[in-house]
Amino acid sequence: GPTRIPAISAPDSTLAFLRDGYDFIATRCDALGTDAFRTRILLRKVTCVRGPEAVAAFYAPGRMSRRGAMPVSVMTLLQDRGSVQTLDGEAHRRRKALFLDLMTPERLEAARAILAEELARAAAEEWRGRKEVVLSDAIGGIMCRTALRWCDLPLEGEDIAALARELSAMIAGAGRIGPDRLRAGLLRARSERRMRDRIAAARQGHGGQGWVIDRLIAHRDADGSALDDAVAAVELLNILRPVVAIGRFIVFAVHARACHTGAAHWLEARGDEAACRAFGEEVRRVYPFFPVIGGRVREAFDWRGERFGEGDWILLDLYGTCRDGSVWPAPAQFDPERHMRPPPPGAMVPQGGGDMEEGHRCPGEDLTRALLTEAIGFFLGLDYEVPAQDLQIPHDRFPPWPRDGMRLGFSR
Ligand code: HEM
């Protein structure tokens, strides 16, 4: 029969994907008047999809595996051997609970309090009196200390600046090919080793390594086995690294306030928790972070009148779905007020979609919201200027910073 999901004519889209980055899937969907098309990336057949219906199909329980599903080197650094991302079914559900159990209201409140202290300390001890601070440089150390303190990992003996560099490099290097990527891989090996040593020490009864390591040690997988030191270290980095990554959204929130006058006025006029939260949600919706999530079909299914067989590769456009004009009114407009109501179902997917417990949706979403809300409130109360600078955000980096790193002035 006729193809219901069109194929694009180019034989391979790898370079186009790298060049167009965040816009790759959406621009082609718009041009073809569709929300699904077929192409090849790295010569491998792939179906690219976007929008809430695609989210529902992609996140149907048990349907898609994450193994071998990320394009090029994009974010392969975020998928470590033996980690929760690589598991499926019951094994995944059990391991996932380990992460979700960390996110109690008390722990989220504690995280906010720690971040508030770290931001206030940086502002008082490091920023005050300095003409300019590059926020994208400054945020790594703040988030790293926040992450370690939240996990109750002792800061003593830890070279915070070095660890912050390592954790940030893993994120920044994730979307690159070549030396950056290699460097990130080496740095990862170093922090993995250090975390492994801490876990081994805790296991041998030298306590005082904090509640998160205690949880990792106490955890039992679906088959009843404990995590070995290497996998426990990988999962510990699966907590530390993304907490540091939340710093990107914090920088983006400062950027948004500088660039979107109407939204900034709305935030400043209200100034309350709900407004800060809504502003943070709009940052998560429109700013570029995870462009796509890849999956491979575990259980064959039909969608749009076509068959998806076992092993087939699908790329879901997270960024494009958050800006899908069929469900978001004026999608390109930065309008925090839209989050004073619940979002359209399946459309708010910056950290994945579907069910957190059953599927691979990010377990750190509540923590991300909590820390982002706290930080937005903090900057609202801080006296700073935004000097003239290049505020553009490139779209061919995964993920990007504002070109000048978001410089802030503290001359007064
Ligand atoms: C998974 C984004 C923060 C831990 C994911 C996924 C995305 C994502 C897109 C993949 C979803 C999928 O495979 O369907 C982000 C972004 C964050 C963030 C943009 C903000 C900076 C966090 C935090 C934590 C965390 C704070 C933990 C403290 C994880 C873990 C997974 C994951 C463990 C794997 C889940 C699984 O495979 O079941 N995240 N995340 N993330 N995230 Fe996050």
Textual characterization of the structure:
With 412 residues, the protein is an alpha+beta fold. It is built from 14 helices and nine strands. The chain has helices at 14-20, 24-32, 52-58, 89-100, 105-127, 135-150, 160-172, 179-203, 210-218, 229-259, 261-270, 273-286, 318-321, 365-380; strands spanning 36-41, 44-49, 64-65, 132-134, 292-297, 301-303, 306-308, 313-317, 407-409. The strands form three sheets. It has a five-stranded mixed β-sheet with strand order 1-2-8-5-3, sandwiched between helices. Strand 6 and strand 7 (306-308) form a beta hairpin. Helix 7 (160-172) crosses helix 8, helix 10 packs across helix 12 (273-286) and helix 10 (229-259) runs parallel beside helix 14. The longest helix has 31 residues, at 229-259. The protein is globular, with a radius of gyration of 21 Å. Residues 72-77 and 173-179 have low confidence and may be disordered. The protein binds protoporphyrin IX containing FE. Residues 66, 84-85, 96, 99, 238-239, 242-243, 245-246, 249, 289-290, 293, 350-352, 360-364, 367-368 line the site of protoporphyrin IX containing FE.
Report the structural category: alpha+beta
* Mean pLDDT metric: 90
How far is it from the N-terminal to the C-terminal residue, by CA? 70 Å
Which fold name fills CATH's third level, the topology?
Answer: Cytochrome p450
Using the 3D structure, state the CATH architecture. Answer: Orthogonal Bundle
Shape, principal axes of CA atoms: globular
Counting DSSP E segments of at least 2 residues, the number of strands comes to: 9
Task: Name the bound molecules.
Answer: protoporphyrin IX containing FE
Give the SSE order as H and E letters. Answer: HHEEHEHHEHHHHHHHEEEEHHE
GO molecular function: heme binding; iron ion binding; monooxygenase activity; oxidoreductase activity, acting on paired donors, with incorporation or reduction of molecular oxygen
Family: Belongs to the cytochrome P450 family.
Keywords: Heme, Iron, Metal-binding, Monooxygenase, Oxidoreductase
Cofactor: heme
